[in-house]
Write a structure and sequence with these properties.
The structure is a homodimer. Chain A is of the alpha+beta class and 357 residues long. Chain A is 29% helix and 24% strand. The first copy, chain A, is built from ten helices and 13 strands. In chain A, the strands form two sheets. In chain A, strands 6, 7, 8, 9, 10, 11, 12 and 13 form an eight-stranded mixed beta sheet that branches. In chain A, strands 2-1-5-4-3 form a five-stranded mixed beta sheet, with helices on one face. Chain A is globular. Chain A starts with a helix and ends with a helix. At the A-B interface, helix 1, helix 4, strand 7 and helix 5 of A face helix 1, strand 2, strand 3, helix 5 and strand 9 of B.
């Protein structure tokens, strides 16, 4: 029976028709719940502006009242669909009222404004986002590989570890890596994390708004893959209290000026500005981050702002290469794994490029 | 579930030039292998063309948190049997940002020895026989062994077949093909005397390549056991009592030992090794005293002896070598958890460079 089901799922429709399936993806009412539904297109499309707008029932995602429930989807970015393959696509969308106003949970719209400001565009801001996440067993809220009712051995062997006693869930991670490359996402690497059952992938360097589009679609692909694998993905920043690492979304950032000769001074000035707006950034860097940013487990305390070269206990870390070459990029280690990349990327650009103290 | 394997097995060469490189290094304990992957813009076959990288040494016991970057220098490339396509495995060694090998980096010193002109001239070949034990995942007990008990005594298991004698062959066979695919010079496999214990051999490989290939073969083995849901142990005496230990016998020859008159060169080399027995033993793996008892096909750890076809000796010379007057010899002392960079370079150093 299962043979026929996979035959059907894997049908290559291009052999029979010009039609293509587009999966429209959007962010739901709690800011982290991804939603999607599919529609048939008469022919393949590669340009988002040529895709039709669509709509969905916002009253079912906490984004509209029942008596006026339509929320409009504007297609913003296209990726190849690794699940349906062929000419089928994933479409990252953002959400508007019928009158054309971004709904309150639409964080992309404001970010796009910042990224299209001429001063920001001129600086060509690049982002590399390190997305950490934890895999949980499906039937209990406990990490994959952990004995139910107990704990694995303490942290130490798991970071980049291998073996059935150290690495849990690699097939999800590896399937995700290839699926993202297939989709056209600029995924630059993966690694096993310090807490067992926790993993990381990196997206970037990507310019401006596309960094966040790519990260959201990478998160979508990840959750679709865990669905196949029968496990649950958690983006909680501190899934297990105690002597276990949290999960972050360290955001690496550079501008044209930072990447050129003399860039190190530009970096230091940028870090100073970020320090002056520490509280505002922290407030926007993800819910529950106070459980994670304790000053232990390779974090800086949430109330402290400090930076250092190669210092993983700092709020902002500058790599040794950057320090040595006098130019490069820096890493904002404060964002939690459940941050909204539209918010974080645009805020880092806004504070460092536009904001005047 | 079938769809998950569709994704894992995606052949990316159909959609992109990009490839994935898995960088491998040895962690702070000297036996813990670590790896992480990065995307490259196109295929690479020359390690010198791969970018250096770095990792969080504070998470592997190799650097403090406030100065955590350890630099990875790519040294050898192999095809990735897990991702296939143009994807690669990269064996690396570890340096401080200032360019000094970190203390656990044994490759750097070995490379110096192997690039000494006298050593280069001798073209040292190595064949390493890596023994290992497969354990059940949830209890630290060999696979196939009844939990709370023991299998029948040793006898039927060496090169044995059948569900009552050979435990874990699917790991061993997939490892064999995966290594051949990867480009590792794996020369054979066999079931060992203790049930659940196996051996593979890598070689003959010249110089530093022997260490590189053995480490990557170990990496591939542990990745395969991860998939199979069993645990690999390189402990030299996993089960006490009347059960064999696990070694890494190291076969060795030089240009001179392989030429006519080589047998005399071999005897001189063995004498030199005998004079440095304690130093070698100290570098031949932790816990070896539990294994080198003089029983179970070992020589006692405090004794140095050699003999033709003698498996109870520290060094064994094969009958072929004795008959032809040239060839190679087998140092049977190294434990399964030895570092091949240390052992191979030390044998070369003692036999070629060291003057008593």
């Amino acid at each position: 029976m299962s043979l026929l089901l996979t035959d059907l799922i894997n049908l290559n429709l291009s052999d029979y028709t010009d039609k293509a399936i587009a999966e429209y993806i959007w962010v739901g009412g709690n800011g982290m719940d991804l939603r999607s539904k599919a529609k048939t297109l008469p022919a393949p499309v590669t340009d988002p502006s040529k895709l039709p707008k669509w709509n969905y029932d916002g009253s079912s995602t906490n984004q509209a009242p029942g008596q006026d429930s339509e929320v409009i989807l504007y297609p913003q970015a296209i990726f190849k669909d690794p699940f349906r393959r062929g000419n089928n696509i994933l479409v990252m969308c953002d959400t508007y009222t019928p009158a054309g106003e971004p709904i309150p949970t639409n964080k992309r719209n404001a970010a796009a404004k910042i990224f299209s400001h001429p001063d920001v565009a001129a600086e060509e801001p690049w982002y590399g986002i390190e997305q950490e996440y934890t895999l949980l067993q499906k039937n209990v809220q406990w990490p994959l590989g952990w004995p139910v009712g107990g704990y694995p051995g303490p942290q130490g062997p798991y970071y980049c570890g291998i073996g059935a006693d150290k690495a849990w869930g690699r097939d999800v991670v590896d399937a995700h890596y290839k699926a993202c490359l297939y989709a056209g996402i600029n995924i630059s690497g993966i690694n096993g994390e310090v807490m067992p059952g926790q993993w990381e992938f990196q997206v970037g360097p990507s310019i401006g708004i596309s960094a966040a589009d790519e990260l959201w679609v990478a998160r979508y692909i990840l959750e679709r893959i865990t669905e196949l694998a029968g496990v649950v993905v958690s983006f909680d920043p501190k899934p297990i209290p105690g002597d276990w690492n949290g999960a972050g979304a360290h955001t690496n950032f550079s501008t044209k000026s930072m990447r050129k000769e003399g860039g190190y001074e530009v970096i230091k000035k940028a870090i100073d500005k970020l320090g002056l707006r520490h509280k505002e950034h922290i407030a926007a860097y993800g819910e529950g981050n106070e459980r994670r940013l304790t000053g232990r487990h390779e974090t800086a305390n949430i109330n402290t702002f400090k930076w250092g070269v190669a210092d993983r206990g700092a709020s902002i870390r500058v790599g040794r290469d950057t320090h040595k070459e006098g130019k490069g990029y820096f890493e904002d280690r404060r964002p939690a794994s459940n941050m909204d990349p539209y918010v974080v990327t645009s805020m880092v650009a806004e504070t460092t490029i536009l904001w005047k103290p």
